[in-house]
Amino acid sequence: MVFKKSIMVFTVLFVLINFLPVKGETDWEWNKIGLNLCNEGRFSEGLYCYNRAIKLNVTYEDAWLNKGDVLVILGDYLKALSSYDRVLKINPLSTTALNKKSDVFTRLGKYNDAVSCYDKSLEIDPGNPLTWCEKGNLLYSLKRYQRAIECYDKSLTINPSLARAWYNRGNAFYCLGNYEEAIHCYDRLLAVEPANIYGAYYRDSALKNLRKKSYASIEE
Q1: Are 77 and 61 in contact (CB under 8 A)?
Q2: Angle (nearest 5°) at CA 198 between 171 and 165
């Protein structure tokens, strides 16, 4: 059984090595080849290249990050986390690795760990509007709408033109039944992205709900 497995591994490696479009000599070249292969959807071959890059340079952050990314695509989340942890050993201030870990923890349903990673990332770089927005999205998915809104507020204070933050902030207010504030968010979104059909749809829906709410209060 062990012998058969060894033959299989050897066969896979032989195919990977001999059918690569080009072969690298430096860590940078192997990483670049891996990126190109992954862009073509050839993820196993890309993973092989990242491993070659890492073998040449065990402190190559980008190769570890790329390896983690392809492992996520392949559904091997635990090994992906291990790759991102290697990045953090090399560079404890890597917000990219922390944010990617948060995404993996979310996929695994470990939401508290995911929030914790975003918190660590924001301690390092509190001025990143995208991280605030992504943390808000996670909280929104957990139906913690008020906390999500607080994150979107932070994001929009840094970047008032971040369309996704306006859209998701509007959705959070919509879920809370605060249609006036939701409409305001969708208006801000449409000012940035006039062709956003989702923003237009939910603005119209919020407006209809607001009118129903107003009619109900008048009848009372």
Answers
A1: no
A2: 45
Structure tokens at 191: 């000012």
Q: Identify whether the C-beta of residue 50 lies closer than 8 Å to the C-beta of residue 31.
A: yes
Cα 207 off chain centre by = 31
| Model pTM score | 0.84
The Cα 118–Cα 147 span in angstroms is 14
What is the reported pLDDT for 9? 42
Concatenated DSSP letters for 110-146? Answer: -HHHHHHHHHHHHHH-TT-HHHHHHHHHHHHHTT-HH
Mean pLDDT of all residues in the chain?
Answer: 91
Q: What tens digit of pLDDT does each residue of 133-167 get? A: 999 999 999 999 999 999 999 999 999 999 999 99
- What pLDDT is attached to residue 12? 46
Is the separation of the CB atoms in 151 and 136 below 8 Å? yes
Residue 208: CB atoms within 10 A of its CB come to 11
Q: Mean pLDDT across the stretch 50-58?
A: 97
Tokens of 13: 């490696």
Give the up-direction half-sphere exposure of residue 89: CA atoms within 13 A in the CB hemisphere: 10
Size (the chain), residues: 220
Residue 214: predicted pLDDT? 73
- Token digits of residue 146: 């008020």
Buried-exposed string 91-128: b where 16+ CB fall within 10 A, e elsewhere: eeebbbbbbbbbbbbbeeebbeebbebbebbbeeeeeb
